[in-house]
Amino acid sequence: MLASNQRQRIALSAYFLLSGICFSSWASRIPTIKTNFNLSAEDLGNLLMILPASAIIGIPLSGWLVAKYDSRIPLQISSLFFLISLFLIGFAQSLAVIIFALFLFSLSLRIIKIAINTQSISVQEKFDKRIVGSFHGIWSIGGILGVLFSTLMIEFQISIFWHLLWISIFGFAIILISFPHLIKNDKAKTGNNFKLEKPSKYISLLGLIAFCAAICEGGMYDWNGVYLKEIVKQEVFTYGYLLFMVCMTISRLSIDKLMEKFNMQTLYFAGSFLIMFGVSISIIFPTLWTVLIGFSMVGFGVSGLYPMTFILAAKAKKKFHSDCYFNYQHLFYRRHVFRTTNNWLSRSCIWVTKSIYHLYNWRFYVCAIKQNGF
Question: Which comes out higher in pLDDT, residue 216 or 368?
Fold first, then answer.
């Protein structure tokens, strides 16, 4: 018989795994949606704007829900809507339906991210060794499984409807089995009221770290398939995403041990360099193998940034729902930049700019780490 803390860890791992599967299943099908609705790159960029737009509602709502109730409640409810919205994405026959589905998808995902990371910190407190990084590694494993399944669906020309329907049915089974074993009574005793107040300098620096990571990771999720299909001219456009997820997973499963061997300043700087170099060679040399190598480097680079930042945020003296602040910054970036992706040159310039900006701001990582004594 497993101990209660082990059951809680396994149950939460199932949610991380499912989240990774669902997200990668959707992201790997973005080129399919673009083709099915005959969208230009600019139209697709405008459609993807729905995701950060719905986050405007999801960010404060998620913080309030996690503060008001045990995190398992909003996690379960948002997971249900997440799976429903995933099915609707595959079912959609009109732009109106897919707009609604994407809105619900992003809104649910915002709540899941807050609730699931709240659970992970609670589970971490029951273990002596660091395990937060392993949860994010499991999310990446889910991402790999999702891309592998998507690749099979594309190879055998299975429609997006059946593809996402099967994923949704699988997801419903997972959350029904895992929910009873999640941590209970983890509602925050302090910091329960959501307020639009100026965060501390420390939280602001951590927000900047997550902002830079989100720029690079979000760009890979949204555009790597389109890049391979339209620029590199690959019919099976999921190979780059698959390799990106494999490298991210390998690194995330190792991040806890890496943090024991190296200080966070070194890991942040190494990750930033890999992102900059990987994106640069993918753009300068747009051939299959150089792009795959570049995507792999980006996968290794972005892998540890979120786990390390959540650990630092959890040690903040004042309790914040820090992921809310992180996503506000990511939101404004997507609003002003992704609308300009109407041709290959603009997409290339964006990728180069964001990777250089990410490296340039590594000094802010150092400030945040030193301020907390790492």
Answer: 216
